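== Protein entry: sequence and backbone fold ==
=== Local backbone shapes as whole numbers ===
==== Amino acids and backbone structure tokens ====
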Amino acid sequence: MKGRLFGTTGVRKVYGREFDLDMALDLGKAFGTYLNEGTVLLARDVRITGKMVEDTFAAGLMSTGISVVRAGVIPTPTLAFMTMHGRYKAGVMITASHNPPEYTGIKFWTASSMGYTPHEEREIEKIYQSREFKRATWDRLGSDSSIDNAVSEHIREILARTKVETIKSKEFKVVVDPGNGAACVLTPYLVRELGCKVITINGQLDGHFPGRKSEPDKESLVDLIRVVRDTGADLGVAHDGDSDRVVFVTENGEVIRSDRTIALISMDMLKRQPGGVIVTTVDSSKVLDEIVEKHGGKVIRTPVGDIQVAFKIRENNAIFGGEACGVFIFPDFHLAPEPFLATCKILELMAKTGRGFRDLMREIPIYPLKKTKIQCDNERKQEVMETLQEKLPEAIGDVVEIITVDGLGVSLKNGWLLVRPSGTEPVIRITCEARSEQDVEHIIERAKEIVEGTIATR
């Protein structure tokens, strides 16, 4: 195998081309060797390859003497929560998150419900590459069992942290779009427990993701937008394939950027916890900093990836954190993405203020933001990024500050620009935010020219 095994979070690769069952078996052996002892909670999302990858990975684990408890098809946040709640040595999710259906992958979770750090992933990868696996004797092999209460336990604990009666009193109508992913087994049932009338679309489990692409964004949520408008719903809720992300839609069909939603929830939390720290990634809008600072809080930024956010939350005793892609982390619950509690918090805000979601979001300004991505072979990413660090700031002009927390961040007089290699795809991502549409278009087009030119030069 060439190149790094782990990406931004766990392993994510195209099945049959970059990933096969031999890899799954050896990853199971490597992880079992790394753990040495204990029991692992194992689950999967809806992908067509999921069951056989799960079975093969489980065999690798058990061959090292590690026992396996299977939780079936559940959301990734449920797996992470139950790993902590059930006091397992670790949790493993067979998933490729929001990637297209041809991808498969594996995410690893610690007993604290936090993902494994890059350092820990490198240790697992070293064992994988060395092929020096622990081999249990026939009478010391791990056992294989299952549980069927993961989702119900997760829902119970979410409701315990939610003002259920306050929400019930409003009898909201909510449209849920799980995108044929793992949230099919949780979100509609959770929202019903809150006394809401629930309308579900793309609600059947299907690893082909026939309803829409797995990643929820403005382009993929056209059906959700239409149904919210047509039914007079109060809120739209959409998830990605393994349900660690959530995106919200207002009653008039506006898809809300999640960094703005983070700002809204942060504003409410800071009223009860003044001076609190909020953690987000380098690609979140500057509006989050402005809102948090206005309400007496502090923002800390990290590289992209929920593990990066979780690590900084723990390190700084932060009260809340998240990513612009739709990740929300509530550390007083657990340290994994928690889209379901985020949904409850939005409904709580609507209920206790008597205001619609659209009206609440008016308090959070919108700055024009554009994203694009450019194909770049994985083996060339480092070379391209090194060249860009030298040439891009000078070529783009009007630079105020250069930030290298994750990729190349450039603070400009009239906005900011982030250029970073994807950890999950053979692309380089470009994100730009500015005060006007004209500025953001100019900056991102200029950056795109520079990046494409650098990639084309050998």
